Amino acid sequence: MIVPMLIAFFAYGDRLATGTSLAAIIVIAIFAAGMQGGIYGNVDIEIGLILSVPAIVGVAFGTALQQRIPEKAVSVIFAILLIGVAFYMVAF
Amino acid sequence: MDIAIAGLICAIGGIVAGLIGVGGGIIFVPAMTIVLSKGQVEAESTSLLMIVLVSMVGAWRQRGYGNVRLKDAAVIGLLSPVGVLVGVVVANEVSERVLRIGFALLALYMAWRLLRRVFSDSATVPPSNTVAPDAPGP
To answer: Any chain A CB within 8 A of the CB of B55?
Structure first.
């Protein structure tokens, strides 16, 4: 919800919104991990680190790809997602 | 073999995360529950570890492209626990049906704002020169 809010209500450009969102998610994920009882009990650190390798390659590729597609594409993707979420919320 | 499939799905999750600025947990979690038969709680907790690492790299890359406002990101991040608390209180006070309809309306309103911006910008015609350059003077 961060990206569409920044674009729709705070006049952010699409790329600026996604970049700022990723930076905010660092903090949010650390909080969430803390609230969930910490990294200790439930986290499979080995699997997490192994799967993080392709995920990190993916995010580097995704951010690079984003610089090469029309900026408005992110807004269109989010508009479709939001309409889907709205439908899901009411229908199910 | 399963770990390779899960890794491939997580690579796709990473691409989505970078492309649209989300954590990617919505893809990482099913990669672990469905492919690796992890429990929901363990998968969600493990995905948080992944999201921290993925968002760090993603934000670092986007910072390089000039697409991060660090101060705003810090404010959003630090306010998020407040948002969670407000959400919990509201969720306890309001019936689930009302909550879902309210959220659906908010989602539709944001979708409309996004689309209006996309189409109003692309529909803008370049300013035409309505004043004839050789208009006769007084």
So the answer is: yes
Report, as an integer, the average pLDDT of A68-86: 92
Residues B60 and B45 in one domain: yes
pTM confidence score: 0.84
Residues B53 and B83 in one domain: no
Are residues B83 and B60 part of one domain? no
CB within 8 Å: A26 and B69: no
Same domain membership, residue B64 and residue B2: yes
Of A22, A29, A33, the CB nearest to B62: A22
Query: Residue B47 sits in which domain range?
Result: 1-68
Per-residue pLDDT tens for A33-53?
777 655 556 888 899 999 999
Judge: B73–A20 Cβ closer than 8 Å, yes or no.
Answer: yes
Q: Å from B8 to nearest chain A CA?
A: 7
- CB neighbourhood size of B95 (10 A): 9
Instruction: Look at chain B and report how many structural domains it folds into.
Output: 2
Question: Domain for residue B22, yes or no?
Answer: yes
Measured between alpha carbons, how far is residue B6 from residues A50, B32, B68, B120 in Å?
A: 10, 7, 30, 41
For residue B89 the two structure tokens come to 């209180």
Handedness of CA B79, B51, B19, A78 (dihedral sign): negative
Query: How confident is residue A71, by pLDDT bands cut at 50, 70 and 90?
Result: confident
Interface of B with A in 83-122 (CB under 8 A): 84, 100-101, 103-105, 107-108, 110-115, 117-118, 121-122
